[in-house]
Amino acid sequence: MEDVRIKKREVRTQILNIREGMDSVEYEKKSSAIQESLLDFANFQESKTILLYSPFRKEPDSTGVIKESFSMGKVVLLPVVHPKRQEFITFKIDNLEGDMRDGSGGKREPDPKICKPVPLRFIELAIIPGVAFDERGGRVGYGEGYYDKLIPLLPATTRKVAIAFENQLVSQVPMEAHDKFVDIIITEERVIYKI
After folding, report:
1. pLDDT for 102-121, tens place per residue?
2. Which residues are annotated as a binding site for substrate?
3. Full-model pTM
4. CA 192/CA 181 separation, integer angstroms
5. Which EC number applies (predicted)?
């Protein structure tokens, strides 16, 4: 068990260093390609209610997808994390500027005083962030386990899709029993369906 945790920390450190090392031109180009692929993705186009995230620490930028989702009439949900309770609450946002506030660690999140909470059972497509992924859908996050707790609470029909840079993929993610898989990974180069 401890060996797996050590390996996860090593993978996390390695991939974060690679991701943080991207210059702004490379980051924007790759993020744009990922967003275009996601917008063209059939499950995205068919879904009415989508859980997205506000990008953090050079995660692939999802801002364009959020804005395009508004124009397509989709219900856009973003999470607010309660670290003490170790849980997510998903809130509907209608405006990236007016509905958001600075959250924990400088991450932008919905303002609960303005936005309405929406139960997880309405989510048709969930965009799941992470640090590293493998082609089986294995995922290493930041170590807090928030998404590992969220994924089992989503409806069985909800597609769990990661957006990631190609350099976030590793041959095999070290997994523990509580770690959860994603169904699909979209990178700037390809769409990977879980093997």
Report:
1. 887 778 899 999 999 999 99
2. 59
3. 0.92
4. 13
5. 6.3.3.2
